[in-house]
Amino acid sequence: MYDAAVLIGRFQPVHNGHMALLREALTRSRQAIVILGSAHQARTPKNPFTWQERAQLLRAALPEAERARLIVLPMRDHYDEPRWAQAVRQAVAQVTPAGARMALVGYFKDDTSGYLQAFPGWALIGMQRQGAIDATPIRDAYFGASAATLDQALTPFAEHLPGSTRAWLKQFAQTPHYPALQEEWRMLRAYRASWAGAPYPPVFVTVDALVRCQGRVLLIRRGHAPGKGLWALPGGFVEPHDTLWQSCLRELAEETHCALPEARLRAALQSQRVFDHPQRSLRGRVITQAYFFDLGDDALPEVHGGDDAAHADWVAEQQLATMEDQFHDDHWHIIDQLLGLGLATSPLATGAADRQSP
Question: Is the CB of residue 208 less than 8 Å from the CB of residue 247?
Fold first, then answer.
């Protein structure tokens, strides 16, 4: 019997395959710890439900007697596996006694399961694939339905979904989040279909500009899906005949109407960095070159949204810590890493462990 068994996943949404793994964790240990990935993100078709909602779904699918032995820890995506694994270990250490006998429950389904090898100090409870279902087709059926066809769309998954999950999904479909997520799901589906005939999946290249002035960061609100209404760095796709630098200056000017001359931006350039995590964008494989400009104590340049940006504004750095779930893709993490703010250093900084039964 282990002191604690850890189960890591996104649970978007909770299905019976997840529950089989969780029941094994509860059977083999005194306490089960679920690491809820992709926490603190904005809602997207891939991550439509908050970590609190997913914790609720996990508890609702358990017998009441088992709920007291479950701890749920929200975990952000760091887009950096060593950093992420360290954050998981730190979070688990905060809720387990020193010297606890630890186990990790899971199964190797594809290349995304490599994380199971990132915790050599924990025993691995390997299991066979539990059922022939993943969350992706459930989400596709869910967002491809309408209010009138939702029951019909979920019927093929009846044996794969706890009754509590299915009931909750129907309730969620009555919220304003559902049609907004459907709109983005349709856009992304059409986007991928447009290059489905390519001989191999394309790799897109973008640029992003991080401009700081007087302790404020220049941000835009996206005017279109994906990420409509979310905060983002000014940026976009590289034009065929532009260099990365030229594309950065062009996107900055088009989306914010920031009228700084190129010479001033060259003088303000502090660093540049590539962000290339394969999962950083829902549009596909997108690699971005981010440029960090620091204008110091200069007067704040006048800005207003243009092109793909519905709005542009200077946002105080101290506000950023509370805005993670309002950002598009990994832009919050780009800011955190380029500015060295340390916003993502504490694994539980923006969400305490959920220990409570409903």
Answer: no
Six-digit token pair at 247?
């594309």
Nearest-CA neighbor of 258 among 289, 290, 218, 298?
218
The per-residue pLDDT for 100 is 95
Nearest to 210 by CA among 163, 141, 171, 258: 258
Report if residue 48 sits inside a domain: yes
Exposure string of 61-94, with b = 16+ CB inside 10 Å and e = fewer, is bbeeebbeebbbbbbbbbbeeeebeebbbebbee
Determine the structural domain holding residue 126 and report its residue range: 4-178
Condensed to tens digits (0 to 9), the pLDDT of residues 100-155 reads 999 999 876 555 557 777 888 899 998 877 667 889 999 999 999 988 899 999 99
Q: Which of 168, 179, 171, 172 is nearest to 146 (CA)?
A: 179
- The total number of structural domains in the chain stands at 2
CA–CA dist 44, 28 (Å, integer): 34
- In the numeric block, the tokens 């701890």 are attached to 71
31 and 154 part of one domain = yes
Query: What's residue 357's pLDDT?
Result: 37
Same domain, 158 and 27: yes
pLDDT digits (tens, 9 = 90+) for 182-208: 999 999 999 989 988 889 889 999 999
CATH number of the domain that 264 lies in?
Answer: 3.90.79.10
Confidence of residue 351 (pLDDT cuts 50, 70, 90): very low
Query: In angstroms, rounded to a whole number, what is the distance separating the alpha carbons of residues 140 and 188?
Result: 11
The model carries a pTM of 0.90
Pair (208, 155) in one structural domain: no
- One domain, residues 20 and 59: yes
Asked if the structure places residue 304 within a domain, the reply is: yes
